[in-house]
Structure formats: structure tokens, C-alpha cells
Amino acid sequence: MRAYVLERYGGPQGSRLMEVPAPMPGPRDILVKVRAAGLNPVDFKFRQGKLRAILRPRLPFVLGNEFAGEVIAVGGDVKRFGVGDRVFARVAKHRAGGFAEQACVDEDHAAHMPRDLDFAAAAAVPLAGLTALQALRDELDVKPGQKVFISGGAGGVGTFAIQIAKWLGAHVTTTASPRGEALVCSLGCDEVIDYTAQDISKAGRRFDAGFDLIGGNTLEQMFEIMKPGTKIVSVAALPEPQTAIKDLGGRRTLSAIFWIISYGIRYRARRAGIGYRYLFMHPSGADLVQLAGLIEQGKLKVIVDKTYPFANISDALAYVENGRTKGKVVVTMS
């Protein structure tokens, strides 16, 4: 089968499409004929070697973290799926393998695709949708009537985050360029700050929860607009000790490293009276079922910016790496 394989860390030349053996499902696995796969910043960061402190698989390694397709075989202990089922999934971090014509995934990390959603749209959901849901529902505990600030609302995670925050009953403010304003407003955003012309820090200390999708100076400015005693969750800045303990299997050595590298951000947060948490989302079939329900009820729209054929996956990753996507980017198999 064809797969997009990482052979060495670094630039795009370290990965290529090549023939590899098809994966064999374990007892709890489903084997899926991949019809479409979603692309995310974590894909090119992994290719660049930026995640080697967290995950260092043996190379060559098939990249790809999310996909949609049809089940073609199941392990002996699988209970929830059968051959022919249409599924979407977020594969476990250590496993990946989504950029391939066939992929294996633990049945607990997959769910039946939303009705009336095509494979390309379904493949765009898992990683970004789970990230937004787990950040807003679990980490920030968003409640009706709260004011939530989301940076980068027109991106892959942001388009899900706006809608999930509204579903949770929040008043939502986000940042967007003039090019992205119409999109975020169509998703239900209540207020938009044009980050190309306005200073976020001038918005006043009025927000009850913050979801950072940009990092850098944007995160610094967010500390100025949160009410004291509130919390910011980031997926774009630096991981802190809880990340290693809660999200990465209780790795205490890694926790100590994260304590050091995140000291500046944590110090800045303490000075502002704000909690800071970096989140690595976790695969969850149960959460995918909830996202599928929201999609079927018309409460969650999937925004796909561009679709590429699998043969052009290098171009698709370059487009994602450019950082100007509006919604998600997907590759489809022939």
C-alpha cells in the first residue's frame, strides 16, 4: 500500500510517498481503508523533529493522526464495529499511520461517522474537534453566560472551538483578520477583534476563560484581558509540568523539563493572577460520538479550507505550514 513516510527529521525532503506493508490489526484494532485524512500543525512539527522529547518512534514511520474510511477487518476482541462500517478516528500519538491507504486504530479511539457527512469532512473533525471539546468542556469548564476569549478563531481548532463554546452557552470573542471575520461570525462568534489593527490587551479584564491557539505575543496579551482567578488553556505555547503528568502518562522527568522551559510563562501568569495550562488532547471514541451528535443535530459545522489528492500531500502540508488556513486541510485517496 502507499503511505507518506518520515525517513529522517527536518524539512519536507525527509518524507515521501512510498510502498509499505499493510498494517495488521491487533485484538482490539479495526483495520480501515482510509478514504481521507486530515492535516494538522502537529504533522509538520513531528516531521521537523520538534516533538522528539515527547515521542521518538523508530524510523521510517508513517505519519498522520486522523482519518475517515471504511472498516475492512476487525480484531477478535472488537465489539463496536464490523466490516463495512464508515468510521472516523484520531489515532494514538505513538501510533500515527493515518497518511496511508490502510490504517489500524484501537476501537476506543474511533466512532461511526456522522450521517450525511462525506469522508473528507469527517476526516477534518477528530484532532481539532477533540482538542476544542476537551479544552473548553474539561479544562476550562465553560458554563452558560461566561465570556470566553479564543485566539485564532478562523483556524482548524478555532472553527470548532467557537461553535462548541456557543453550544456550552458562552459569549464568545475571537481574533481574526479581515479575511477571516465573515467566517467566524458565520460560526456564531459574538465579537471579533481584528488582530492586524487592534491591540488585544486593550479589551479589558472581562473574560472568564481563555483558549490560546496562537501563542507568542498573543498569549502575552491574553494575560491582560482575563479576570483574576481565571484560566488560560493553550495548545500553541510551551508545555508545563501538568502536561507531562496528565496528558503524557505521568512522565516525571519530562515534567521537570517542562517546569524549566515554561517558567517564564508560568511566572507571567502568576503575576496576572491567571492559571496556565498546556493541553495535549487525548484520543477518545466517546468524545467523537458526542461530536458526531452535534454535527448531526446541526450544531457543529465542519469547515474544510482545501482538499488535495493524496499524491499531493507534500503540497498540502506546505499549505498548512504556511499558517493561513481557514478551517481544515484534507487529503483524499483515489
Keywords:
alpha/beta; 6-stranded parallel sheet; 7-stranded mixed sheet; 16 strands; 334 residues
What report would you give on this structure?
By secondary structure, this protein is of the alpha/beta class. The protein contains eleven helices and 16 strands. The chain has helices at residues 41-48, 119-123, 126-139, 156-167, 178-186, 216-222, 241-247, 252-261, 263-272, 285-296, 313-321, and strands at residues 2-6, 15-19, 29-39, 61-62, 66-74, 86-90, 102-106, 110-112, 147-150, 171-176, 191-194, 207-212, 226-234, 275-278, 304-309, 328-332. α11 (313-321) links the parallel β15 and β16. The protein is globular and about 55 Å long. It starts with a strand and ends with a strand.
Question: Layout of helices and strands, plus pairs?
Answer:
Elements: E1 2-6, E2 15-19, E3 29-39, H1 41-48, E4 61-62, E5 66-74, E6 86-90, E7 102-106, E8 110-112, H2 119-123, H3 126-139, E9 147-150, H4 156-167, E10 171-176, H5 178-186, E11 191-194, E12 207-212, H6 216-222, E13 226-234, H7 241-247, H8 252-261, H9 263-272, E14 275-278, H10 285-296, E15 304-309, H11 313-321, E16 328-332
Parallel strand pairs: 9-10, 9-12, 10-11, 12-13, 13-14, 15-16
Antiparallel strand pairs: 1-2, 1-4, 3-5, 3-7, 3-16, 5-6, 6-8
